[in-house]
Task: structure prediction
Amino acid sequence: MTRVLLVCPEPLGHGQPAGIGIRFLEIERVLKADGHSVTLVSQDAGGLDPSAILRQSETHDVAVVQGHAANDFFAHACPMPVVVDLYDPFIIENLHYYASRGSEVFTHDHATLVRSLLRGDFFLCASEAQRLFYAGMLLAVGRVNPITFQSDPALQSLIAIAPFGVPPPRERTQADEPRVLFGGIYDWYDPILAIDAVAAARESLPRISLTFTRHPNPELTPQGKTAEAMQYVKRRGFEAFIHFEPWFAYERRAEFFDRFALALITFPRSLETELSMRTRVYDYLWGGLPVVSSPAPGTDEIVERYGCGIIVDSSSPRAFADAILRAIADRNMIAGTRKFVLDHQWPEALKPLRDFCRTPRVDTNKEAFAVAMNVPERPPSILARLKRRIGGVS
Result:
């Protein structure tokens, strides 16, 4: 049995996790089922202060870290094998915040990612596109080097694909109204397109509605697009059929999903769409909701393979409205969601992590060609505003 420490960057105490939090909760369940002793800590569940990190690291055999929480872990933990979860390409997502928050976000993200690439022993990502992206970054910092390549040309011992997964299949109650679920709004989405699409669909289906959910961690996730969407709805007088509801509790999301007939996701093309693994796509399909979505490689492949939705390669509200109406009328798509669930169970998705935790190891060659990391100095006022720490230095 291995003692595994999971260090989650997202608050978990409120019981309303977003994508990263969901992933860590499911990692905990899978590893416990394998017989490991697992401790899950976060900002508000176990603590990430220096003394807690040191204490926890002294009593565990391997750690799994993600995102900005890795900074404090690497600064204060005892030496031990570390898995860095790169499933969420936060440095790409957060490029959207430059206009509102300036260059410090990128500086912070870049330093965080480089430190993680230099210090981790094994890396997880969510897709083949991500694997190539991160392999290039690992090469740039010296972790892909002649020694690692000679011993493992495919880099399987360095970085592996461990995508998102879903819980076991469930029976759903069919919605009695044509309600459409969008979910939370991040700044790389296009909620206005979704609103206009549903407004257009009402010409043929007057009872249709659209629901957004308010993010449970607004202090950590800028809400510019959410505010824009709420103002747009009020200005257009759409309050009767466009709703903004609280984020739902993870353990009760099945009954929440049962209220809806369909999921809708709209966003512009960007590097983010090429690399991201849409957590909500997995969760919505588990909930039995067919998906109407803008194009993105990961989502496109799922929809095409399982026939569980429609990809709309357009920025036209009318094109999305037509797709929504077709998807609501096509009951065969629900069968596609069930097949997807069977093929994407968490234990199989996390197999590379399960294998590593059985025999954790330190990469003894990690410093052989590693580049030196130079982090630019930043004024304390910036650190205070970001409420973050680089390398645990407050």
User: Anything to note?
Assistant: The chain is about 45% helix and 15% strand. The CA atoms of residues 257 and 287 lie 6 Å apart. Confidence is low (pLDDT under 50) at residues 377-394. The longest strand covers residues 179-184.
